[in-house]
Design a protein that fits this description.
The structure is a single chain. By secondary structure, the chain is of the alpha+beta class. It folds into three domains: 2-113, 2-Layer Sandwich (Beta-Lactamase); 128-255, no CATH class; 263-414, Histidine kinase-like ATPase, C-terminal domain (Heat Shock Protein 90), CATH 3.30.565.10. It is built from ten helices and 13 strands. The chain has helices spanning 2-16, 54-61, 78-81, 115-162, 165-220, 226-255, 266-284, 303-323, 356-361, 377-387; strands at 20-27, 30-38, 47-49, 65-67, 88-94, 101-107, 262-264, 286-292, 297-301, 329-337, 342-349, 391-396, 402-414. Strands 7, 8, 9, 10, 11, 12 and 13 form a seven-stranded mixed sheet that branches. It is elongated. It starts with a helix and ends in a 9-residue tail after the last strand.
């Protein structure tokens, strides 16, 4: 967050040639002036009620404010401005739908900020919103891992307190094993989400930066084509909106804690898992194909855990192709009715396949064929699958590549008629 604040205060001032710039965040009913870059002191480190400052008004009204003369505008709390150099200002909200902060630019003389300047500042504010939400999301992920670990430790203490010495040792071992496995599963999910956030944000924010730099270059030219500048800024804003939507999507994934078994649509789970890996597969130059039978039944499962298993298997497929140096390939996931009231999910790829020695040890903990791998993803996936009364195994495909089979008990209730495909 300190890095974000530094970038915002410097860039905001440079974009408009202002004498000062501030980065403000909302904290409940207060505006906190986090950082500033100015020719003289402003309000860094101080907090004001939303109703008592211009930045609060901007957040509440969800729109920018341009004030050419602060001493001629009744909305300005002039006593707060008298000790400063400020004579005019512009403030824009960070995230217009539900502002989380604001960016302020200030001048030492009376000046009216132009439409182009306001557009540029709003573009910076949109990029800032995506960055701040990314930081907050990462903090939530880390907190969830800490909370889950604390809950497991408390359960382990209660279990030990209720048992005798012999049973306590056995139950202690079982509880520790459960804690170890669930902790690994949550840590791995955190890593996948963090990686997904980085992939999803990097492209739109890079594009937005390029468009913003182009707009600044146009503004510095003598004869400014205002329509071209506005069009360039709008393109940057669209890229920033992509980044904001990506953060919101990951936040929804994070909110889906493990509520226990539910009668779930396996097609929905597959679709969600594929969306989580779309950016990564695209960056690697691969496609992910989906084919879910219309005849498939629903599955009684913890959908978050099963989604995690599918993400693991698909990600392994992408990594196998990448490590083999395959420039173009695909991973495919199919879901079909299985034997004896089950659902059969098949994940295959265009990779080099699995050698015989690896096939025998593939699901053992700490076994890996990857350089730098932890050897835990398949072990955790099989543990989750078996806990659901299912099966997970691997083989080599007839036409090459690896094939993983995931069998889950069906609930007996038909899923919605879906057939989703994505690439």
């Amino acid at each position: 967050m300190d890095a974000i604040a530094g970038i915002v205060r410097r860039t905001a001032r440079r974009l408009t040639g202002a004498d000062g710039a501030t980065f403000i965040l909302r904290e409940g009913n207060l505006c906190r002036y986090v950082d500033e870059d100015a020719i003289g002191p402003l309000w860094k480190g101080r907090s004001f009620p939303l109703d008592a400052c211009v930045s609060g008004m901007v957040m509440q009204e969800k729109q920018s404010v341009v004030i050419p003369d602060i001493y001629a505008d009744a909305r300005i709390p002039v006593d707060a401005y008298r000790p400063t150099f400020v004579k005019s200002l512009v403030v824009v909200p960070i995230r217009t739908l539900d502002p989380i902060g604001a960016i302020g630019n200030y001048w030492a003389d009376k000046r009216t900020a132009g439409e182009d300047e306001v557009e540029l500042l709003q573009t910076l504010a949109d990029a800032t919103a995506a960055a701040v939400e990314g930081v907050r999301l990462q903090r939530e992920l880390e907190q969830r891992v800490r909370d889950r670990t604390s809950a497991l430790e408390a359960a382990n203490r209660r279990l030990s307190a209720r048992t005798g010495s012999h049973d306590a040792g056995e139950n202690q071992s079982g509880a520790e094993d459960l804690k170890y496995r669930i902790g690994l599963e949550r840590d791995q999910l955190t890593g996948i989400l963090a990686s997904g956030i980085a992939h999803e944000l990097s492209q739109p924010l890079t594009a937005a930066t390029i468009y913003t730099d182009a707009a600044m270059h146009l503004l510095r030219q003598g004869n400014v084509d205002h329509d071209l500048v506005i069009n360039t800024v709008q393109k940057a804003a669209a890229q920033n909106q992509r980044a904001v939507e990506a953060v919101c999507r990951f936040r929804e994934i994070l909110k889906r804690d493990s509520p226990g078994p539910e009668n779930a649509d396996i097609g929905d789970i597959i679709h969600s898992a594929v969306r989580l890996l779309e950016a990564e597969s695209r960056d690697r130059g691969y496609a992910i194909g989906m084919d879910v039978s219309e005849e498939i039944d629903r599955v009684m499962c913890d959908r978050v855990q099963i989604e995690h298993v599918i993400v693991n298997l698909l990600r392994n497929a992408l990594e196998a192709m990448s490590e083999a140096g395959i420039s173009r390939g695909s991973a495919r996931i199919r879901a079909r009715p299985g034997h004896d009231d089950t659902v059969h999910i098949i994940i295959s790829d265009d990779g080099p396949g699995i050698d015989a020695g690896a096939l025998e040890n593939l699901f053992r903990p700490l076994y890996t064929t990857k350089e730098g791998g932890l050897g835990m993803s398949l072990f955790v996936s099989q543990t989750i699958t078996q806990a659901h009364g299912g099966e997970l195994w691997a083989e080599n495909g007839d036409d090459g590549g690896a094939v993983f089979h995931l069998i889950l008990p069906a609930s007996g209730e038909r899923s919605q008629a879906v057939e989703r495909r994505a690439s």
